[in-house]
Specification:
Blueprint lengths: L8 H24 L5 H19 L1 H4 L3 H23 L1 H8 L8 H16 L6 H27 L3 E4 L9 H5 L2 E3 L2 E5 L2 H10 L3 H12 L3 H21 L5 H6 L7 H26 L11 H16 L3 H4 L5 H16 L1 E6 L10 E7 L4 E8 L11 E6 L10 E5 L14 H19 L19 H11 L1 H7 L11 H9 L5 H18 L8 H9 L29 H19 L4 H12 L7 H9 L6 H6 L5
Parallel strand pairs: 6-8
Antiparallel strand pairs: 1-3, 2-3, 4-5, 5-6, 7-8
Helix pairs in contact: 1-2, 1-4, 2-4, 4-7, 7-11, 9-14, 13-21, 17-18, 18-23, 19-20, 21-22, 24-25
Length: 632
């Protein structure tokens, strides 16, 4: 395994230059060869993929700013080199020489995908259009890296006196940094969550919410505006009307009209339920028509505490991060017939980072995964799973990925998680399992390398276990007494799952609508107009001095024109979980079948077929609507 612990800018630069030179030699030999095979292209992809995991990945996680900066610089070089590979007309000729007569289904899928990549690189366009396409691609790479970098480097901090943070527990206050008599609220999720869910001072919630949603607005707004225009121009080069049409042509949705249909079907049901939720949830003498975005999570948290009869600050005491994580592993081991083992972290990029290995219960090792779970200056600010290596090479035999998150750190605070954070941990671990279990002989199909609007289904399904009594009694363990939550309290918590669900889901819908707006026919509308238009769906009055799109990392992080995929995949994930609901929440029989039919194929089989194979029918939204108590 690669040793991240002793890297320097010089060693990384050497690795970058040497690997690109090695890959260029491979390409040169390939173009000179009389016999070209699909594996030659896979070797190139593996080399570049793993190089990104060794070097570019550090731009998101390394504690040394110089190494992070070089990681971002390397990311640009790697992406531009990959662009160069598919622009190579000589290589394209060799691709066309491949004999496909005796290829199996997986081979044919890889061959087809390569063809699409060559087509997307401009083969088939006029020389003038191809030249412009390359200019656009290079600029989009540069913009994407800068956008992400600006979010990570945002150092917004707010100061509050203790009486301005009324509602936060003593534990939560102790987790905050102090400067004199002021408590410091950073933009890290543990701080934001504490205020959003528990602070009874409405003005404080408003100030924090606005600061969080306006991160990087000055730096990133022009970047996003330029990226949107360039994407539209690129789509036009290929004969598409919009970037959304271009992006979705090979996804499950096939095109933006099916995304619109999903939203049109769902929005009226959500809005009707949201009107009722506002009436039921509003507290602190706030008028229903005055409810603001910074009130929703506070309302939901208060109501959840009432229904479960456990205050939020007390509930957190049952979810110490290491206890939750270890019990989550045990649940996954039992349900999916796996074994998860702790490994030495001596090669990791930070002392807080853990390394684990994933095994079949009575069989071979499947993968490794890192857990980088706590906030640091300059680190990626959200929660995600990064592919580090697809494995299958002499240098790295097994796949490796890393969960990167921003949960409370027990080394600097109490390490107690909110219930939403527990849900996020399970969600992201769904990606880890997908990355570790998914297999293919081709790098691009390993693990979670599948259709982008399916990729969230194996993570969405994991969230269900958090709420189930059978699992909740296991993952909860009081930090002082060691007792688990009683079955009665777990049942009440499960009952509280749908508190505010329509309001919260409409917020997600608003993100998806903004994304489609930006990448549709009206892409030239101002960002403020896009923001304001998309927020109308929430039925909540929205301030006119906020533009969260500048801090919406997904828009330049691969989810452009594809953020709808979260709800699309949630609908599928809920349907997949219906088998566990019907046959046993922790059923090992269903778990093994799920592992074999959904996780193991990776991207080798179209998602529609995988889902039908597991369910015995085409997927539908019945389970999704039922889960959210929405009438059909």
């Amino acid at each position: 395994m690669f040793n991240y612990s002793d890297v320097t800018v010089e060693s990384l630069r050497k690795d970058l230059d040497n690997t690109i030179s090695e890959c260029k030699e491979l390409i040169k030999d390939l173009k000179a060869s009389s016999e070209v095979k699909l594996n030659n292209f896979n070797d190139m992809e593996s080399m570049i993929y793993d190089l990104s995991g060794r070097v570019a990945f550090l731009g998101d996680v390394h504690p040394d700013e110089k190494i992070r900066d070089f990681g971002n610089e390397a990311d640009s070089k790697i992406q531009n080199f990959a662009l160069e590979i598919f622009n190579d007309s000589g290589l394209y000729e060799k691709y066309n020489d491949i004999d496909i007569l005796n290829l199996d289904e997986e081979d044919l899928s890889f061959h087809k995908d390569l063809g699409l990549d060559f087509k997307d690189a401009g083969h088939g366009l006029s020389a003038e259009k191809k030249e412009r396409l390359i200019e656009i691609e290079k600029k989009l790479i540069e913009l994407g890296i800068s956008f992400s970098e600006n979010i990570a480097k945002d150092k917004t901090e707010l100061m509050f006196l203790e009486n301005e943070l009324k509602g936060l527990s003593q534990n939560e206050l102790q987790n905050l940094r102090k400067e004199g008599s002021n408590f410091v609220i950073t933009m890290a999720y543990p701080d934001i969550n504490a205020v959003s869910e528990n602070c009874s001072v409405r003005k404080t919630r408003e100030v924090v919410w606005k600061a969080f949603n306006n991160r990087s607005v000055k730096e990133n707004s022009p970047i996003l505006e330029e990226a949107v225009v360039l994407r539209n121009e690129k789509a036009k080069l290929f004969g598409f009307n919009t970037w959304s049409e271009y992006r979705l042509q090979n996804r499950m949705a096939k095109g933006p009209s099916n995304v619109s249909s999903m939203y049109e079907e769902l929005i009226p049901k959500l809005q009707k339920a949201a009107d009722k939720e506002k009436d039921e949830l509003v507290i602190d003498n706030i008028k229903i028509n005055d409810i603001a975005p910074w009130d929703i999570r506070y309302f939901v948290s208060a109501e959840r505490a009432k229904v479960s009869n456990v205050e939020n600050s007390e509930l957190k005491k049952y979810f110490y991060i290491h206890d939750v994580k270890n019990e989550m592993f045990k649940v996954c081991e039992e349900v999916f017939d796996l074994k998860i083992k702790r490994e030495s972290n001596h090669n990791a990029w930070h002392d807080d980072v853990e390394l684990w290995s994933l095994w079949e219960k009575d069989g071979p090792q499947l993968a490794y995964f890192y857990l980088d779970l706590h906030p640091r200056d300059g680190k990626f600010t959200h929660a995600a799973v990064f592919d580090i290596s697809s494995g299958g090479t002499e240098r790295q035999e097994l796949p490796i990925c890393s969960m990167v998150a921003n949960f409370p750190n027990p080394n600097t605070g109490d390490g107690l998680m909110t219930f939403d954070e527990v849900e996020t941990l399970f969600h992201e671990f769904g990606h880890v399992l997908h990355n570790g279990i998914g297999k293919s002989k081709y790098t691009r199909f390993v693990g979670a390398n599948c259709e982008w609007d399916f990729v969230e289904a194996p993570s969405q399904i994991m969230e269900h276990w958090v709420w189930k009594v059978e699992c909740l009694t296991r993952i909860s363990k009081h930090i002082e007494t060691g007792e688990s939550l009683s079955e009665q309290i777990c049942a009440k918590l499960n009952k509280s799952k749908n508190i505010g669900v329509s309001l919260l889901t409409l917020r997600q819908v608003s993100f998806g609508l903004a994304d489609q707006h930006l990448h549709g026919e009206n892409f030239n509308d101002s960002l403020i107009e896009v923001e304001q238009t998309s927020q109308k769906v929430t039925t909540i009055a929205y301030p006119d001095d906020i533009n969260h799109l500048a801090a919406f990392g997904h828009l330049l992080g691969g989810y452009d024109a594809a953020y709808y995929g979260y709800i699309w995949a949630e609908i599928i994930g809920d349907d997949l979980f219906s088998r566990f609901e019907n046959e046993g929440v922790l059923s090992n029989k269903v778990g093994i079948e799920y592992k074999d039919k959904i996780l193991k194929p990776g991207g080798t089989i179209p998602a529609e077929y995988m889902v039908k194979n597991f369910l015995g029918r085409k997927w539908n939204d019945k389970a999704f609507l039922s889960q959210k108590n929405l009438s059909k």
